[in-house]
Specification:
The chain is mostly helical. It contains nine helices and no strands.
Length: 187
Amino acid sequence: MFEQLTQLVQQYGNSAVVNNDAVPNEHNEGVINEANNSIFSGLQKIASEGGAEQLAGLFNGSSPIDSFNPVVQQITQQLKGNLGEKFGLSSEASSGVASGMIPQILNSLVNKAQDPNDSSFQISDIISAISGNSGQASGIMDTISKYGMQFGLDQNNDGKVDVTDVLVVTKSKGGISGFIGKLFGKK
């Protein structure tokens, strides 16, 4: 997952960092690396501090990925502080870079994770990578399951969204991509 995240950061870092006069050219690579590290460590921090609902909301698309999203705000603030501290960027320049990159990268990450035709990102892999332990990962997956209940994904009416529901959907409604599409609001 870290490699795919790095590719996204580099993709969006071109306009926010490389083509930004407020970032000295000798710091371009370092700033892009710091953005990558801040996203990964920011997601890990949210997971470790019990932010399962925030992460579930991010990954299931129930909350917009914009400057008002609490996950985006937390990671943006972290990156902004790191850029000022490590590279001496002004508050304005740091803020511009962070707010120009974080929402776009997270939006792209979530869209790729939700796309049944794109196997480069899997939500379970992302959650495992950021949670670091099975207790946190299962907590986040439980929260996603809770949201799945709200979206009517309990196919066998047993009161939980689990593998059995996936099997019901895969046999009757377009395979696993149909189930994932339903989970993330795609018809």
